[in-house]
Amino acid sequence: MKKVLAAFAAIAVIAGGCTKQQPQGAPDLGPIQVLVSGSPDEIAAYKTLIEAYKKAKPGTEVQLLEASSSGDLTTKLSTSIAGGAPPDAFLMNYRLYGQFASKNAVEPVDERLKASKVIKASDFYQQAMSAFRWGGKQMCMPQNVSSLQVYYNKALFTKYGVALPKDGWTWNDFLGTAQQMTRDAAGHQIKAGETEGGPAPKAAVHGAGVEPVIIRVAPLVWSNGGKLVDDDQKPTRFTFDDKASLEALRNFIDLRIAYGVTPTDEEVKAADLVSRFTKGQLAMLFESRRVTPTLRNAKDLDWDVVSLPRYGNPAGILHSDAYCITAGSKHKDAAWSFIEYAMSPDGQKIITATGRTVPSHIEVSKSDAYLDPTKAPKNSKVWLDAVPHVRAVPTISTWVEIEAAVEGILENAVNRGDKLDAVVAEIDKQTKPMFARGVTP
Alpha-carbon distance 167 to 383, whole Å? Predict the structure, then answer.
């Protein structure tokens, strides 16, 4: 891995050294490099976007740099910045970008956005825009405004004669449905407790699939009236010792420990949650919009989407990625020109066609480019209905570390049955130093 990263840094330096100089006073046409990560379908869409941009702006040069995952993208970006030859622009989730914004590695876009004749700030959902503000400045332009929802396998519900989930359902509704949909190979419902020890029946179909990560727990905490951290602006610790937050965390862990409606760690390692859903081994799946292209391509899969179950008020968690300009770019105007096109209605429609994104451009999100009734899911509007209720996790430079630490603790809790007070204490122990080291806007 070190050799690969060193090679990438060397290539970036060489590329930076070969940059063409623009004549004084001439428009900056590049060449620029844009770093993204995504599935093959997404990468193909970004290539289509670049070709459309080049036709709209003759003479421009854009090179797409591909990363295999968000982690790989972060590593490549860090290495290239350290090597003095970063890409001109990159696409990154708001939960990750704080580590770069805190080091002044991102160029604010405020002035360019104000001067644009193509787009304006009010064109976009402010829930996504605000997630990319740092020090009072707009750092990046969000291409999507997704959130966590519940996918469900309609054919399985019909097979077992269970009522389909409905928007506005409660946590207890969800739990009851997940229990009804947890079945053995003969199709019989497995009751709570029967999956524990001895010759207990093995679930051929689990009622729900939910990753044991903080971004799955957070909206449940908020819906229950709890707080995730002590201060959203300047967080110093998680607040799972709060009664409402603790209740949501307990119920989340109990999905496996007390009720057995979610797959075990061993089962997920054998086949991940998305694969299990497409194969009819999972009745419901907690996910953002990102899995839609995969589900659309799954053969003979009849599915739709429903809102997150709620405790009290509806609550959701933001999933948003944005185009950012690196502070070290030699072609910032050209980078902005590309981003400006990508964020325009024409650009947004190209990426929306993959099915992966909920467009941040308000006009596009309400058009058939996104709400096309001929394409699954039929209930795509559920993401737009969720926008007023979505919240972002705290913006802090160490959030990536914090998420990773909590994931390990939650995995153990869900699969080993660790005591709740020990889980909360361990989360505090591991993450408080990370919060303390973090930089906030």
Answer: 11
Q: Is pLDDT at 280 greater than 70 in this prediction?
A: yes
Mean pLDDT of the chain: 93
Contact 151, 289 (CB under 8 A): no
Q: Where are the alpha helices (DSSP H) in 59-191?
A: 70-82, 94-101, 110-115, 126-130, 154-160, 171-181
- Which residue from 349, 341, 385 is spatially nearest to 367, judged by alpha carbons? 349
* Dihedral sign from CA coordinates of 366, 368, 370, 372: positive
Q: Is the dihedral of CA 404, 222, 259, 161 positive or negative?
A: negative
d(CA 75, CA 77) in angstroms, rounded, equals 5
pLDDT band at 17 (very low <50, low <70, confident <90, very high): very low
Specify the pLDDT at position 23: 52
65 in helix, strand or coil?
Answer: strand
Whether the pLDDT of residue 320 is over 90: the answer is yes
- Residues 354/293, Cβ–Cβ less than 8 Å: yes
- Whether the per-residue pLDDT at 195 is higher than 70: the answer is no
| 150 sits in which H/E element | strand 149-153
In the chain the domains, ranked by start, together with CATH numbers, are 2-12+20-145+320-384 (3.40.190.10), 147-318+396-437 (3.40.190.10)
Tokens describing residue 377: 């899911």
What residues are paired with 289 via a beta bridge?
Answer: none
Do residues 309 and 84 touch, judged by C-beta distance below 8 A?
Answer: no
What single string gives the DSSP state of each residue in 229-247? BS-SSS--SB-TTSHHHHH
- Asked if residues 253 and 414 have their Cβ atoms less than 8 Å apart, the reply is yes
Averaged pLDDT for residues 42-69: 96
**Token duo for residue 373:** 């009734």
Note the pLDDT of residue 29.
87
CB atoms within 10 A of CB 191: 12
Which residues sit opposite 287 in a β-bridge? Answer: 149
